[in-house]
Amino acid sequence: MSQIKALFLNASLKNSEEQSNTEALWKEVGEIYDQEGIAHESVRLADYYIPYGIDKDLGDGDEFPQILEKLKGADIVIIGTPVWSGEKSSIATKALERIYGSASETNEKGQSVFYNKVAGAVITGNEDGAKNAAQSILYRMSHMGFVIPPNVDAYWVGEAGPGPSYIEANGIENDFTKSHVEMLAYNTMHLAKIFKEQPIPAVGNTQ
Amino acid sequence: MSQIKALFLNASLKNSEEQSNTEALWKEVGEIYDQEGIAHESVRLADYYIPYGIDKDLGDGDEFPQILEKLKGADIVIIGTPVWSGEKSSIATKALERIYGSASETNEKGQSVFYNKVAGAVITGNEDGAKNAAQSILYRMSHMGFVIPPNVDAYWVGEAGPGPSYIEANGIENDFTKSHVEMLAYNTMHLAKIFKEQPIPAVGNTQ
Amino acid sequence: MSQIKALFLNASLKNSEEQSNTEALWKEVGEIYDQEGIAHESVRLADYYIPYGIDKDLGDGDEFPQILEKLKGADIVIIGTPVWSGEKSSIATKALERIYGSASETNEKGQSVFYNKVAGAVITGNEDGAKNAAQSILYRMSHMGFVIPPNVDAYWVGEAGPGPSYIEANGIENDFTKSHVEMLAYNTMHLAKIFKEQPIPAVGNTQ
Amino acid sequence: MSQIKALFLNASLKNSEEQSNTEALWKEVGEIYDQEGIAHESVRLADYYIPYGIDKDLGDGDEFPQILEKLKGADIVIIGTPVWSGEKSSIATKALERIYGSASETNEKGQSVFYNKVAGAVITGNEDGAKNAAQSILYRMSHMGFVIPPNVDAYWVGEAGPGPSYIEANGIENDFTKSHVEMLAYNTMHLAKIFKEQPIPAVGNTQ
To answer: Are residues D28 and D172 in contact, defined by beta-carbon separation less than 8 angstroms?
Structure first.
């Protein structure tokens, strides 16, 4: 079996010159992938020029096509987002719009190009909103062709109100977050392997 | 001006024989109402027989009509709910369905019977989901005729994962929660008084 | 391979003495299951006495334990709901609360008892709200251990505002709805078969 | 009384060189404002350089400060958005992030600078998602200091699945949409006038 590849799209509002709490939580997932021989790459979306629109290539220097190629080459796609006002970030929303604009591409069997890939979500915030962000991301990914394994919403948020973020709050010590990091990493890996061996038959689901 | 009356509908899954964290947070609001001379009543929805359906009276012992009378008599309506799986409770959902089934009733000017009343939300949970619950409740109340004052979502939730609830966690000490209790209490009161003096003109909004 | 079994939980607010639009859409799914040799059963939740609470058995005549046995015996679980005020029904919310209260049960390997099962959603409404209902249902099912296959949200809703429901509107003629019925039926079947042959390894996901 | 001013922020993904369905629905609101002597201005957000972040001025050519000045000068703020994948647009999400980053500014009484202003939402899409977009927008606006009048969610969406948009579908003929345009226009106007005469007392709600 060829190596399983995981792609992390970090929808932090900050580019990679600044520290991202969501990246820090993702690194916990990446450590498990390292142990298990899963290749992984993290893309900071704010580093790219990604214009607005519902199309896979909007021209004029649009860098989303590069990201689309990475998506097509990945077996596992994890969307990472901070929580603002109890929701996923605007960059996460834009990424989902651009993926949606690419979902009519098909694989060689006529299914959406995202079939046989699995998706998950990594979320951090000072407070409340992780499940709202997770449900939005995971539903849209499943609607575009990805499989959602069990328990692939790894998140940390603090108590109600302003407060320290994941890194400062030492969220890594939270047992619930730790167990969800583990389930996210292992279940995306398990299912990616299963669909590599046994792809979803192209019956009833071609475009 | 006649006395302002506030009604609290507590959508705890437990009836009043058991302690409700959401009730405990509501009491903080009630204390401010007491200081300000606002009458208030708390209704534990789980104590009533409220069948499912979209009608103001479903017959066969339906006790919602009693609650509808209380709603009509109130100037301020606060929905309280626990958070389960990041959402408002099923009893809160049912209450909104029944209020929706009553929204075609009109006042003497032909507006929805809920015009000139203001709404708010009080929410508690172990963890994540308060804003999701708040947005669902406040939007539906506004869609049925209530005015939503600023900052009327008073909530407490703990850090990600299982953990103590509001009472046990001493959530009352949370400054953010305290400030939102205050804004909820005062802004519902301020706006209820304003609409008592200056009702919304019946132009462009009659049924 | 033993026969695949599908369970449909219909969260209509009406019991089975009344016609359900959601049931009518489900029947389209059932026809495909019949052709493919998938056993299926529909449970009208409003016919059962299901009290409120977060536990698998609340005693006092609670009939949820019967439904839990059906859930454990099924390979595919589809939640069906009408849309009210742009959301899933209160009975759907209650069903998810009760399933959540049962998710700490484990299979013989120590995973949640819902592992290796797949979930989907069938939704009907006069208007707007199907995706909101779908995201809520599918996310919660994945959070409780189910796998979400691609494109398992089959729905019909009409144009904005009051209007005819699925049956009366002849929603069955809607091409989008038809294609999603097909993807729901086939993808739940395909994945249920895959997980029957290749269960998710009990590594990183036991409780 | 000085003239009431309404500001429309159109979060279309397209800039003003292209036709916007959401703008077309907004124009219906604007006609009523014209009749009633309400000044109004429409801002196409995609025409501006608005970087990502949670701050009122991100420097480097950030044009959001211009929009913030317009927000401060308005009595009524309407957010308009298309529906993509059942949600508000990424530009709407970004606008809410930037408004959130400005909500700690205060008026001369110490309340959020958005107090005594009212908000609403105008939404168009091919299909399903308007209420999800409306609840997200209206809740966040209320959480940042705006008052939400009754029935200020004016929207048009078509039947489930791909199909014509508002202009092409002649959504203007939809009675439900028409009545909500009217309620949005009149109720934002009524409440803006009320708060101009009777501002919300600065008791219990200063920062």
So the answer is: yes
pLDDT of residue B1: 66
Alpha carbon distance B153, D147 (integer Å): 13
Longest dimension (CA), chain C: 50
Unique residue bearing structure tokens 């009327």? B152
- State the Cα–Cα distance between residues D29 and D25, nearest whole angstrom: 7
- A96-109: pLDDT as tens digits: 999 999 988 999 99
> pLDDT, tens digit, for every residue of A129-145?
999 999 999 999 999 99
Tell me how far apart the alpha carbons of residues A107 and C85 are, in angstroms, rounded to a whole number: 38
Question: Could you tell me the two tokens for A93?
Answer: 């929303």
Q: Does C207 score more than 90 pLDDT?
A: no
pLDDT tens sequence across D143-192: 999 999 999 999 999 999 999 999 999 999 999 999 999 999 999 999 99
Neighbours of chain D (3+ CB pairs under 8 A): A, B, C
SS3 of residue A41 by DSSP: strand
Which of D 94-153 lie inside 8 A of B, CB atoms? 112, 114-115, 131, 134-136, 138-140, 142-153
Beta-strand pair D5-10/C118-127: unpaired
Say whether C129 and D127 touch across the interface (CB within 8 A): no
Please report where in the chains the tokens 């005819």 appear, as a residue. Answer: C164
Say which residue the tokens 């019949």 belong to: C34
Chain centre distance of CA B197: 22
Provide the token pair at A74. Answer: 């990945």
The residue to which tokens 């803006």 are assigned: D192
CATH of the domain at B192: 3.40.50.360
Cα separation of C129 and D133, whole Å? Answer: 10
Which strands form C39-44's sheet, in the order they lie side by side?
Answer: C39-44, C5-10, C76-82, C118-127, C153-158
Torsion of CA A79, A85, D92, D35, to 10 degrees: 160
Report yes or no: A143 and C153 within 8 Å, Cβ to Cβ.
yes
Is D93 a domain residue?
yes
Of D119, D186, D180, D135, the C-alpha closest to D154 is D180
Q: Is C25 a domain residue?
A: yes
Name the β-bridge partners of A120: A78
pTM of the model: 0.98
pLDDT given for residue A65 in this prediction: 98
**ipTM exceeding the 0.95 mark:** yes
Whether residue B204 is contained in a domain is answered as no
Give mean pLDDT, residues C28-56: 97
Q: What is the CA radius of gyration of chain D?
A: 16
- Enter the DSSP assignment of A18: S
Contact (CB<8Å) B204/D197? no
pLDDT mean over D81-101: 98
- Is residue B98 included in any domain, yes or no? yes
Q: How far apart are the first and last CA of chain B?
A: 28
Q: What pLDDT, on a 0 to 100 scale, did the predictor assign at position D2?
A: 84
Closest CA to D131 of A133, C86, C131: C86
Q: Do A201 and C190 touch (CB under 8 A)?
A: yes
Q: How many Å apart are CA B65 and CA B48, to the nearest integer?
A: 11
Place C1 in a pLDDT band, splitting at 50, 70 and 90. low
Task: Give C141's contacts in chain B (Cβ within 8 Å).
Answer: none
Distance CA D74, CA C206 (A): 55
Considering only CB atoms, which chain C residues are within 8 Å of B140? 85, 87
Residue B174: give the domain boundaries.
5-197
Share of chain B above pLDDT 70, in %: 100
Residue type, C1: M
CB atoms within 10 A of CB D68: 18
The full DSSP string for A118-169 is EEEEEEEEEES-HHHHHHHHHHHHHHTT-BB-TT-EEEEEESSSS---TTTT
Cβ proximity of D77 and D69 under 8 Å: no
What's the structural domain count of chain D?
1
